[in-house]
Amino acid sequence: MLARLYNWTMALSAGPRALWALAAVAFAESSVFPIPPDILMIPMILAQRRRAFLIATVATIASVLGGLAGYVIGAFFYDQVGQPVLEALGKAHSMEEFNTRFNGLGFWAVLVAGLTPFPFKVITIMSGWTGMPLGTFLVTSIVARGLRFYIVSALLWRFGEPIRHFIERRLALVFTLFVAALIGGFLAVRFL
Predict the structure, then answer these.
(1) How far apart are CA 149 and CA 121, in angstroms?
(2) CA gap 146, 66 in Å, rounded
(3) For residue 132, is it left (φ>0), alpha (ψ between -120 and 50) or beta?
(4) pLDDT of 90-136, one tens digit each?
């Protein structure tokens, strides 16, 4: 089953609408969607290595725009949208305490969340809710998401075929590690 899913994702990633799908996922992931854009980005780069940096650019732009949507949700629609998203992640109960700590960390919170598997949407919503200066949020989001996506793209561009062969030979292990990292990010949200 994993092999079929992998082959389907590889075929989708080489298709004519792959960049649009990546942009939609990257945008949504930064504000409300739980699945990171890496799921599409990695096979897209493996399928078309010469487009690695275009793919990173699309992911970065869409992710930052989605982060702005998350910021707006936090700033203006926290009760209607932001709080239910954070409740689903188990973070709504500690909002006041987090608000105080978050404003002290601001730049670093956005940078760390943008670079790691930590769900970026939590930070984008919190940035709007706590009133982080929009300029700080934007610059940090661009740096963090750009670094994350360009590093992944550069590694896949440089070492694409060996990585692709490794993934194809050890698909179950790679999938397990990816799911563990994803779950780890959600657990970090729940318990931090």
Answers:
(1) 16
(2) 14
(3) beta
(4) 666 666 666 666 666 666 777 776 666 667 787 888 888 888 889 98
Q: What is the CA radius of gyration of the chain?
A: 17
How far the first Cα of the chain sits from its last, in Å, is 35
Question: What confidence tens digit (pLDDT) does each residue in 148-164 have?
Answer: 889 888 888 888 777 76
How many CB atoms lie under 10 A from the CB of residue 17?
Answer: 9
d(CA 140, CA 135): 8
| Total tally of structural domains belonging to the chain | 1
The DSSP result for 16-78, as a single string, is TTHHHHHHHHHHHHTTT--S-THHHHHHHHHH-GGGHHHHHHHHHHHHHHHHHHHHHHHHH-I
What global pTM score does this model have?
A: 0.73
Its domain, for residue 66, covers 2-191
Cα gap 6→43, rounded to integer Å: 8
Integer Cα distance of 189 and 192 in angstroms: 6
DSSP state letter for 170: T
**40, 50, 128, 161 from 21: Cα distances, Å:** 8, 19, 26, 24
